[in-house]
Write a structure and sequence with these properties.
10 helices, 294 residues, alpha/beta, Rossmann fold, binds phosphoric acid mono(formamide)ester
């Protein structure tokens, strides 16, 4: 039984075995398999989600688990109950694992030692989003065969991005070269020693260009330029996309702000892996759930 709180602490071998098992699940001919038949999994989302929540639920149901969905807005959290008491409540009812998304960073690390069931981080503040990064690595590995020496540009709202952090920690373990590109107001100073910031023109010269969502809900007022200005300076516009090398893969964790960080017509262009990333999220999460409970 194993939790997955982040990728920073996970070894390359452990990440590789999760990805290998995901490949097994992707190629599996049966849509449902009774691997987690007698297990109860609680999806505890204290922050909104579409992809992560539903792909975990797909993964849980494909493995035959019983699924309990907890949404903060419809719970006693609205009466002031704490995250800790909520998780302990579900644990005391007999869940076998919890998938958890939290707004603040740091709370999950405090919580985990007090909970006896495996916890899977579905995104905590701007700290980590390990299953997103695993599906990103899976998508890149599938496309390029190997991550060694791969040039990956992560562009946009690095400051608020748990995806950028999890991808950075994981990709570096595999010998990929990660570079960031962001306006000054969206740079994360504590990451500067781990990856360099380059201009948008330099960032476009890469095997993977990963665009990040401008997280409007996390920005203080005045931090953000206008959408048009941001698009012109940092967006993957039609003009920039036309100049990419033919092999360059376009990625984005989504949800996408169309015509802000990426032009509408680029989201589903032939070089874009954005919806493939979402498909890959299901076998990757099957692998993570199996690891947690087998
Ligand atoms: N990529 C991602 O985490 O999307 P959701 O917030 O919709 O889960």
């Amino acid at each position: 039984e194993r939790s997955l709180l982040g990728l920073k602490e996970l070894s390359r071998n452990e990440i590789e075995s999760i990805l290998d098992r995901a490949a097994y699940w992707e190629s599996h001919s049966d849509k449902m398999v009774p691997v987690l038949n007698s297990k109860f999994v609680a999806n505890m989302f204290f922050e909104n989600s579409t992809r992560t929540r539903f792909s975990f639920e797909m993964a849980e149901k494909r493995l035959g688990a019983q699924v309990l969905n907890f949404t903060a807005a419809a719970s006693s959290v609205e009466k002031g109950e704490s995250i800790y008491d909520t998780v302990r409540t579900l644990e005391s009812m007999g869940i076998d694992a919890g998938v958890i998304r939290l707004k603040p960073a740091g709370v999950l690390q405090e919580l985990a030692p007090h909970v006896s069931v495996p916890l899977i981080n579905a995104g905590d503040g701007n700290n980590e989003h390990p299953t997103q990064a695993l599906l990103d690595l899976y998508t890149m590995r599938k496309q390029f065969g190997s991550l060694q020496g791969l040039n990956v540009s992560i562009i946009g709202d690095i400051l608020h991005s748990r995806v950028a952090r999890s991808d950075l920690w994981a990709l570096q373990k595999f010998g990929a070269n990660v570079r960031f590109c962001a306006p000054e107001s969206m740079q994360a100073p504590e990451l500067a020693e781990h990856a360099s910031y380059v201009s948008i023109d330099e960032a476009m010269n890469a095997d993977v260009v990963m665009m990040l969502r401008v997280q409007l809900e996390r920005h203080a007022t005045g931090m953000l330029k206008s959408n048009d200005e941001y698009r012109a300076q940092y967006g993957l516009t039609r003009e920039r996309a036309a100049k990419l090398a033919k092999h360059t893969l376009i990625m984005h964790p989504a949800p996408v702000n169309r015509n802000v960080e990426i032009d509408d017509e680029i989201v589903e262009c032939p070089q874009s892996a954005i919806f493939n990333q979402m498909s890959n999220g299901v076998p990757v999460r099957m692998s993570v759930l199996e690891r947690a409970m087998k």
